[in-house]
Amino acid sequence: MSTATVERNSVGLGPAFHRVLNSEFIKFRTLMSTLILLASTALVMVGFAALTAWGTGAEKASADPETAAALAAQGASLTVGIPTSGIAFAQLILGSLGVLLMSSEFTTGMARSTFAAAPKRMVPFLAKLIVVMVSAFLLTVISSYLAGLVALPILGNYDLKLDLSSSQSVKLLIVNSIYVAVVAAIGMSLGTIVRNSAGGIMSLVGLFFVAPLAFQLIPGSFFKEANKYLPTSTIGPLTAVEHVPNTLEAWQAALVLGAWVVVPVALALALLQKRDI
Amino acid sequence: MIEAKGLTKAYGEKTAVGGVSFTVQAGRVTGFLGPNGAGKSTTMRMIMGLDAPTAGSVTVNGEPFAQHKAPLREIGALLDAKAVHTSRTAYNHLLAMAATHSIPKSRVREVIEMTGLGDVAKKKVKGFSLGMGQRLGIAAALLGDPQTIILDEPVNGLDPEGVLWVRNLVKHLASEGRTVFLSSHLMSEMALTADHLIVIGRGRIIADAPIADIISGNGETRTSVRTDQPGRLMQLLAGSGVSVEFHERDLLKVSGLDPRGIARTALDNKVLVHELTPHRASLEEAYMELTKDEVEYHSRVTTGASVPAQAGRK
User: Fold this and answer.
1) Cβ contact A23–B97 (<8 Å)
2) Residue B35, Cα to own-chain centre: how many angstroms?
3) Is A192 helix (H, G, I), strand (E, B) or coil?
């Protein structure tokens, strides 16, 4: 038993933001499932880039001289997307991770411990959001770069060039990584709103995989227009070398992507404050 | 000290806690006793700021829980042994909790030793027995060395040695001047552990008194009387403060009057009495008596001699 000081001397340190952030980081890194999801994201990104590099090279090798020349003429733009070619998988895995990190708080009952230790609910929520977004961003940066490094020798085999330090390479790397961080934030917000892992992941899949397809298929101009404002549609304008007609301007796309963080997060936070744990 | 004033929690039509007011004092173990579904856990979650009251308020050490600068250092709670991510190890769970208040690792190890979790601290909580889960919850509650400790059903799932350990622990904590608030639906456990008892049934406080008073007070002495003229004796005895139940052909149960008084009345009126047995209620009986109208889920026991309902319950 500790030497109990029963008359409280001055109250000790409390749940200031940086301490809760540290706590959330401990929670993040001490779950095996989290680490497995992170590792599998990296693996998928690297593997997919390798496959894409191989496929691109093989296409060039087997093409008739004319097509091969045309492909070669594309130069860097042919290969620049290879490091981030697995981004669709990364967004699904890391978005689901975002859902799980919050929904598991509620499904396991951990939330009672979390919000008893830091009763101002915004603090653990934002701390977790930072952990989720930063880790999603960093993981995508690192995996994409690794993917590029793995793709280089494969491309080299087919006399194709890839400059990982070109401005377009860096742009793709950064934009895609920010995008994945946004998806993770949306996932965490969905996890907070539905408090259920399966429901959260299904909503995420609906938003990122079903909606873009459905919006294309539904007749009428409204959904074609709305499609431009889905988070998935912002990557194109943000990474385009020059503006593609019938898409958003880069600055508009940036605003839309920003809104896709702010609105779900604000909604999740409002519900978190209002509801019982 | 915990102070609840008119604390109410309603879920739509259903009222889980209906305007309860009570004070939990420091320096003694206060038991929170009630049948399942009586509102104990809801009340405790409201104390911890996890559920918002529909009406009323509750403060801990003078302030609402959420207003405290360092909540874990003020109040430690075991609300549910499952308030932990089961894929994490016990040590990492406590470490993450401790980090929010910069509580050192040495204290984490200390509470692990204190609760006897040393051997399993590095194992995932998933594989824990109910008893080990309870110990982990208690370890988390003690982490911040808090002045006030709230334990919801702490002995659930503990083996006899564990039950004894909890009993001694809470008594020790109270003896250090801490506020200890402990819920249970087991009156026998409360009789051994608590100094003061708050009894709740269907969201209302039924009793709030020192445990000795609950045993002697509500368990007022009842006397079984057998007589040849139960109807006549019933009339004679009935009066202010005396309630008489008619049981069998010749059996009355009298409360509010001692055996001597009953005998005197019978003698004065020349009524023959051939049995006069005083019953002193145990805490268990007192509790049953207190909550008999308040339990939400009745189990019906059919016996031959059904007891006519008696309205004059105190």
Assistant:
1) yes
2) 8
3) helix
Query: Between the CA of residue B190 and those of B34, B117, B141, B182, what are the distances in Å?
Result: 11, 25, 20, 9
Summarised one tens digit per residue, pLDDT across range A192-218 is 999 999 999 999 999 998 998 888 888
Pick the CATH number of B220-279 from 3.90.550, 3.40.50, 3.40.10, 3.30.70: 3.30.70
Alpha helices (H) along chain B:
40-47, 71-74, 90-99, 105-114, 130-142, 160-175, 187-193, 211-213, 230-237, 259-268, 283-291
Structure ipTM over 0.85, yes or no? yes
Check whether A86 has a pLDDT greater than 50: yes
Residue limits of CATH 3.40.50.300 in chain B: 2-210
Q: Which of A6, A13, A118 minimises the CB distance to B178? A: A6
Contact B129, B120 (CB under 8 A): no
Mutate which of A5, A6, A9, A36 to disrupt the B interface (most B C-beta within 10 Å)? A6
Q: Which residues of A touch B (CB under 8 A)?
A: 1-2, 4-8, 11-15, 19-20, 22-24, 26-27, 30-33, 104-105, 108-113, 115-120, 276-277
Tens of pLDDT along A168-194?
889 999 999 999 999 999 999 999 999
For the domain spanning B2-210, the CATH number is: 3.40.50.300
